[in-house]
Amino acid sequence: MKQIKVTVLGSGCAWGTPKPGCECRTCLSGETRTRFGLLVDGTEKILVDAGPDFKQQMLREGFCTNELDALLLTHYHYDHISGIGEFRSWRETPLPVYSTQDVLNVTFHENWYRHLVREGFLELKPIQRFHPFTVGGTKITAIEVDHGFPINGWVLESNGKKVAVMTDSRNNYRKESLALVKGCNLLIADSWVAREEEARKAVHEVWGKGKPLSEFEWTGSVSLSHSLLPQAKELGERVGAKLTVAVHLTHTVAPQKELEEEFNSEKFLVGFDSMKIRV
Ligand SMILES: [Zn+2]
Ligand SMILES: [Zn+2]
Question: Domain 5-278 classified CATH 3.60.15.10?
């Protein structure tokens, strides 16, 4: 029976690691986290999201858009869709792009990527959450994930194996989504930071406007749109995932080796770029 090989194309947050100009310990360590992307290679080869590092991810992993059977989009944030301009290679049939209508409307707006559809590179396939469809032998269901607003998570099933993708998720879950993720072989979970203090640092960089961190007042919480590493771990336990991999980490977390020492266990791993998991 063919296994599903899952490759973490990008394990970083919206701005990635290192952050240009940043002199924090993690950025200076030389560690790289490109923006989110996931390749699920089972009976079909399915890509989840194409961010700004997508071209480099293809070159690094040795695949190209011609080999893909489908593209699934979680939501329309920059770090998840801005690599779509790379889908220009000729293929006999256009590549199907599955997502909810809101995501397709924004991403393929007339002044943005609509031309790729007109030119025959891509074909838009609007879907509804909780209504399964198939791509070849892979059954796919979009679930609802809370990113401060509802976005798409994905459940992919082939060869009796189940892979669930819940990136850009806060720790508020719809029970219908959890029911579909339950017992998955692999859960890709969101973890922006390990601790709230690291979130405060990251937010300060954007909104601090030059004020020292000690004077920066932030009443928000990472939990408004993302999760903490311990929350990702809890989610995996709650749904009985055989393995949970955390992605979407920002640069204010400790370097990977330290994260692994603190958080990795038999059923939970901190993700990294180019990580390969066989399910
Ligand atoms: Zn994101
Ligand atoms: Zn996002």
Answer: yes
What's the 92 CA to ligand 1 centre distance in angstroms?
32
Q: Ligand 2 centroid vs 147 CA: distance in angstroms?
A: 7
| C-alpha 144 – ligand 2 centre gap (Å) | 14
- CB atoms under 10 Å from CB of 112, counted, come to 15
56: left (phi over 0), alpha (psi -120 to 50) or beta: alpha
Between the CA of 260 and the centroid of ligand 1 the distance, in Å, is 22
CA 246 / ligand 1 centre spacing (Å): 13
Ordered by start, the domain boundaries in the chain are 5-278
pTM for the model stands at 0.96
CA 202 to ligand 2 centroid distance, Å: 15
Please, what are the averages of pLDDT over each run of 10 residues along the chain (279 residues)? 91 95 91 98 96 98 96 98 91 93 97 94 98 98 98 96 97 97 98 90 82 83 89 98 98 96 98 98
**Cα→Cα distances 1→184, 214, 276, Å:** 18, 56, 18
